[in-house]
Design goal:
By secondary structure, the chain is mostly helical. It has helices spanning 25-36, 39-42, 44-51, 54-81, 89-97, 99-128, 141-160, 162-189, 193-198, 208-222, 228-231, 239-257. Helix 1 crosses helix 8 and helix 1 (25-36) packs across helix 12 (239-257). The radius of gyration is 20 Å and the shape is globular.
Length: 260
Amino acid sequence: MPSDPSSPTESGVTRPGTRPATVSMLTLSTFVIGSMVGAGVFSLPAGFAAETGVAGTLVAWAVAGGGMLALAFAFQLLANRRPDLDAGVYSYARAGFGRYLGYFSAFGYWASACAGNVFYWVFITSTLGAVFPALGAGDTVAAVAVSSAGLWLFFILIRRGVRSAAAVNRVVSIAKTLPIVVFVVLCATVFDPAVFAANWAGPSGAPLWDQIRATMLVTVFVFIGLEGASVNSRHARSRRDVGRATPSSASSACSRSSPR
């Protein structure tokens, strides 16, 4: 039995009682954006340039962006129709398909979060290794110690309450978004129609479908984290804020990441 009267039950349904600390729709949006904007988005242009041209890029973004936007609207619909379910993907899976599939949904989400944290911290420590040789390529004892300390720091912030974690997340989201905005502005200022036209078809001799297939997985990977507002829905001031934050953040991500 949870000690907090407002904490979710085993099925992900909130018990009546004192509500937990709440956050605004803007903060929920930063949860989504902060989760979606990871290291992969910054290496995306180089990956696309090596695999496809303008046509393949447009098709890949249209398919992946359209599918993820549909998923965002699905989260919006679920948040509005079942406000009693506030544990995100797990509670929806359990309510719709039973405890067995609900468990695998929660376990899969946890496993993906663990793998994502490993990737991020290896990426961070390997980058810092250029300045601090002791960190190496992110696989040294010092790198493991730094990564563990960072994870425990975030754990402590989350344990202090959602407001502390949200404040840090807002700063991180801004720090992640600013480089993308600067990149888009720079691309707009140096845009060359001749280069754009020359790269329309992509690598010579490569079929368009092969180009799209080579970039589709990376494109979908960029949208991981779309469920950020739904997972934290129990902290929303209004259930409608969850529905509004998810598709608006997805649309924003599509517009920022679309080729110019």
